[in-house]
Structures are given as C-alpha cells and as structure tokens.
Write a structure and sequence with these properties.
single chain, 71% helix
Length: 157
C-alpha cells in the first residue's frame, strides 16, 4: 500500500492528474446547464418545459434538440467513455512503481491531450483534428494497461 500514498511522488502525480480530470468531468454537467439556460433550449424532459421561477416563459421548442447544447453533451459522453479507463489504468500503473518522470509524462500528457480534445470539440474542429488529439490519450491508457499487465505477469510468475 506504500505505492498508494501521497508520500509517493508517482501517486501524488496521479492524484493531481485524476483530480483535474474529475473536475473537468463534473464541469461538463455544469457547462451543459449553463448552455441550456443560455440557449433556453435543449431540455430533455417534458417537466423541464413547465413554468417555474427559473423558466418563467416555457415553450414547446425548449424540448427541441439544440446543437450548441448537444455538442456539450457529446463532449461529456466522450469523457464518460474515456475517463474511467484513465482512472483505473492510472491507479494500477502507480502500483508498478514507474519512474517519476515517466509517470509525469503519461499522466500530465493525458490531461493535456484531453484539454486539447475538449478545445477541438468545442470549436467544431474536423474529426481528423479531434482524433489526432484523442489518440495520444488513448495510447497513454494502453501503455499504462500494458505496463501493468507486464508487471503483474512478472510478479505472478
């Protein structure tokens, strides 16, 4: 368990990167709400288009999909498809006792690529650009998983 302590600089690096990714993931929900309120559209549930203090003039078009809101939702779905793998792979990778410099490259590199991917998605860059920015993060997860399997096999046999 000594690997999973903030006294371990590799785990501290993971904690920083994972914390940033958690905050980014949670921020997407808030960004969705802000965008829905700003557009006064993109609501998903019929009860959301009822008159309330926050929705004093409801109308049926509030339930119509809104591209600006849907873009945020797609970004959030992309995070939900990718971040859990990072959290798990990164935590297991910490237990392999990698060199600090390598862990920093992998963890912080992942954070940077996710930030750039977010920018590309928000600014409606073409798929090729988004894929170019998504791929290094995905490869970081593959690397961590592979290194963890390798270390596990070495320890088990």
């Amino acid at each position: 368990m000594e690997h999973l302590s903030l006294a371990n600089p590799v785990f501290a690096t993971y904690a920083i990167a994972a914390g940033i990714m958690l905050l980014k993931g949670v921020a997407m929900s808030w960004l969705t709400v802000v965008r829905m309120m700003g557009e006064n559209a993109g609501f998903r549930n019929p009860e959301d288009a009822k008159k309330t203090q926050l929705n004093p003039k409801p109308h049926d078009s509030q339930l119509t999909p809104n591209e600006k809101v849907e873009r945020i939702r797609r970004i959030q779905m992309n995070d939900l498809e990718n971040l859990p793998y990072f959290f798990v792979a990164g935590l297991i990778y910490v237990t392999t006792a990698p060199p600090l410099w390598l862990a920093q490259v992998v963890f912080y590199g992942y954070v940077v690529t996710r930030g750039l991917h977010f920018w590309a998605y928000m600014t409606a860059q073409i798929h090729d650009v988004r894929a170019m920015l998504w791929t290094p993060g995905s490869l970081a997860i593959v690397f961590m998983a592979g290194a963890s399997v390798w270390a596990g096999v070495g320890a088990a046999f």
